[in-house]
Amino acid sequence: MHYVILRDDDTNALTPVECLEQLYRPFLDRGFPVNLAVIPYVRTDTISTNGTLEGFLFAKHVDTPLELPIGGSAELVNYLDGNPGFHVLQHGCDHSLFEFGSDQRDDIANRLDQGAASLAAAGFRAPHTFVAPYDRFSRVSLSEVAKRFPIISSGWFELRRLPFAWWPQYAMKKMLKRPHWQVGPTTLLTHPGCLLSFQRPYPTMLESVKQQIKSRRLTVLVTHWWEYFRDDKPDTAMVGILHATAEWLAGNPHVRVISFDDLTRAHVVPDQRNEDARAANGRLQRKPSLGGCVARKPTD
Fold first, then answer.
1. DSSP notation for the chain
2. Where exactly are the structural domains of the chain?
3. Domain 2-280 = CATH 3.30.420.40
4. Could you read off the pLDDT of 201-240 as tens digits, one per residue?
């Protein structure tokens, strides 16, 4: 069996409900969980790495406040509450550029607490999974996040940004060429890049998704809702690819779509720590691992 977790990033108080409905109704109707990495308290002046306003702010108006809590959109909150197939993850705090790349422990702790408080104020239960904006962590922020969340989802992990106590587990992960690994009670998941993106070739996008899923035990499939609505209109071709993905997942008996929460509630994948222990003793059997995703970041 192959497992897929669908992760969509950047839902915030400015996200139009119509966008999520158009994209994910085929998933919800099939009973597939959709994991939304929600920005709890979005900064509406956030500039992306290329120097332009972030795409997830396309609904911003001239009188939009500088900061907006997720609870500021009653329509969005009610929509998510009314569709339990959506699972909320904490995506940073305000999504300012590299906000979790800081080494200031008090700043990191405050951002985590403020983000959690904003989600709670909107009525969402405390998420089990954390996603850092731009996949950027510092040694301090990883340590603080791991105190609060049992699952961290990222594109990659770098040795120079890991807490020193994590280095042995990281060395084991590298030796076994595993994308997913464990540090104490914390599960760290990587993904193979944003396979569903307008920056990918459309004719081969769906096939790339299929091949990645077939080659791994667990694939975190990442996309961004706003990429489907550039230039103030839907990209119908890209929306079609996303819906074709839902159809393929539904028709494949060897694939199961799960949520991040399923990893904390039920052991649907082999116990990573047990496998690592067998490997350390030289007795690792040839079993499917948790994945095999290729990180977008060059490895250490």
1. -EEEEEEEEEE-TT--HHHHHHHHHHHHHTT--EEEEE-SEEETT-B-TTSSB-GGGTT--TT--SEEEGGG-HHHHHHHHH-TTEEEEEE-SS--TTTT----HHHHHHHHHHHHHHHHHTTPPPPSEEE-GGG---HHHHHHHHHH-SEEEES---GGGS-GGGHHHHHHHHHHT-S-EEETTEEEEE-S--SSSTTS-HHHHHHHHHHHHHT-SEEEEEEEGGGGSGGGS--HHHHHHHHHHHHHHHH-TTEEEE-HHHHHHS--S--HHHHHHHHHTT-------S--PPPSSPP-
2. 2-280
3. no
4. 999 999 999 999 999 999 999 999 999 999 889 999 999 9
Task: Give the model confidence (pLDDT) of 116-166 as tens digits.
Answer: 999 999 999 999 999 999 999 999 999 999 999 999 999 999 999 999 999
